[in-house]
Design brief:
Blueprint: E1 11-16, H1 18-35, E2 42-47, H2 51-58, E3 66-73, E4 86-89, E5 99-107, H3 111-122, E6 127-135, E7 148-152, E8 158-159, E9 175-178, H4 180-184
Parallel strand pairs: 2-3, 2-5, 5-6, 6-7
Antiparallel strand pairs: 1-9, 3-4, 8-9
Helix pairs in contact: 1-2
The structure holds inosinic acid and magnesium ion.
């Protein structure tokens, strides 16, 4: 375990190391670059959790792209979804007639992304695809197609590389399982 950040003491263990992330993001970037060749997609970051993945992924995309940001809330500060999805910050750009690639940190129940996909499709996007760093398929509550995913993970609450618990731990370079003592107290 990397010990250079004080907050690693709150982790049970590291699940995905910075090195694994770096390799996976590079591979995914090559795949997306090939799939969108000749297109000019709008790449949308879902705030705040996806921000680090987004920044790393963008620099692997050899495309003439636009970026935009959207914020959704469904969680509060608990580790279980409320199932209620709320649009907190909308896009600046019009997606009508555009290919949209939505970048998310993790797909859990799938409620957030299924809402976003529906919304952007209704606004006239030519295509809406999803790129996620992590996927927890065991927790899916809605049918959702995820086109690009780096890692499938077990049903555990993870933090780091953008992912938070009560807004903390986003700055950790690796992804780790949060020790239950942190949210059970
Ligand atoms: P969904 O709508 O249930 O798919 O929830 C997706 C959102 O829940 C993600 O964007 C995260 O913000 C949050 N989330 C789900 N699982 C985790 C986790 O293990 N750690 C941190 N955030 C999570
Ligand atoms: Mg999130």
């Amino acid at each position: 375990m990397q010990k250079e950040f004080e907050q690693y003491k709150d982790l049970e263990r590291i699940l995905v190391s910075r090195k694994d992330i770096e390799e996976a993001v590079k591979k995914l970037g090559e795949r997306i670059t090939a799939d969108y060749k000749g297109k000019q997609p709008i790449v949308v970051c879902i705030l705040k959790g996806a921000v680090i993945f987004f920044a790393d992924l963008l620099r692997q995309l050899d495309l003439s792209l636009d970026i935009d940001f959207m914020a959704i809330s469904s969680y509060g500060s608990s580790t279980k979804t409320t199932g209620v999805v709320k649009l907190v910050k909308d896009l600046d750009r019009d997606v009508n007639g555009r290919d949209v690639l939505v970048v998310e940190d993790i797909v859990d129940s799938g409620m957030t992304l299924s809402y976003i996909k529906k919304e952007l499709t209704q606004r006239g996007a030519t295509s809406v695809r999803i790129a996620t760093l992590l996927d927890k398929p065991a927790r899916r509550r809605v049918d959702l197609k995820v086109e690009y995913s780096c890692f499938e993970i077990p049903d555990a609450f993870v933090v780091g590389y953008g992912l938070d618990y009560a807004e903390k731990y986003r700055n950790l370079p690796d992804i780790g399982i949060l020790h239950p003592r942190i949210y059970e107290k």
